[in-house]
TrEMBL record:
Transmembrane domains' residue ranges: none
Highest taxon of the lineage: Bacteria
One Pfam family recorded for the sequence: Adenine_glyco
Organism (species): Weissella sagaensis
Name assigned to this protein: DNA-3-methyladenine glycosylase I
Length: 183
């Protein structure tokens, strides 16, 4: 049996697959990064398993995370999303997603968001060596810096905890545990 990070070891297959194929893998397209940032914002206060279970619904509801389309969502679309039981129906998070899409479109065109977030590490993955998921901090100095800059750019739901989770998911930070086969 493969040894995984504690948080994925006893999870369902969807969580294991996410751990094995996506989490911590360097992501370099702005659209994929926008998807991860959006999902992490919706996950805030909830479980990642819940978000994974609804991920396909999110993709459908939010036009496959095409931030150029999402930037043009209007009040009717917000109302429609609030009635979509397949996603997390949190109006503040929905509005934040639209706001973030507008920021992506206006301030980071042509894959510049990828260049921007990777610039904080000099385009290298930061590799930590934690023995257990309990050892991993909720956020670190890098997350504080990136969070502050994202907020300065106008992003919503980009606090240090959400930002740290985003950096992990995007492979900018590799927090696979030392005994994990993905390390």
């Amino acid at each position: 049996m493969k040894q995984r990070c504690n948080w994925a070891q006893n999870g369902n297959q969807l969580l294991k697959d996410y751990h094995d194929t996506e989490w911590g893998v360097p992501t370099t397209t702005s659209q994929q990064l926008f998807e991860l940032l959006t999902l992490e914002a919706f996950q805030s206060g909830l479980s990642w398993q819940l978000i994974l279970n609804k991920r396909e619904n999110f993709k459908q509801a939010f036009d496959n995370f095409d931030f150029e389309k999402i930037a043009h969502y209007d009040n009717d679309k917000i109302i429609s999303l609030m009635h979509n039981s397949g996603i997390i129906r949190n109006k503040r998070k929905i509005i934040a997603t639209i706001n973030n899409a507008k920021i992506m479109q206006t301030k980071f065109p042509n894959n510049q968001f990828s260049e921007y977030v990777w610039s904080f590490t000099g385009n290298h993955t930061i590799i930590h060596h934690y023995a257990s998921s309990e050892s991993i901090p909720k956020y670190d100095q890098l997350a504080l810096i990136v969070s502050k800059q994202l907020k300065k750019a106008g992003f919503a739901y980009a606090g240090p905890v959400t930002t740290y989770s985003f950096l992990q998911a995007a492979g900018i930070i590799n927090d696979h545990q030392i005994n994990c086969f993905k390390k």
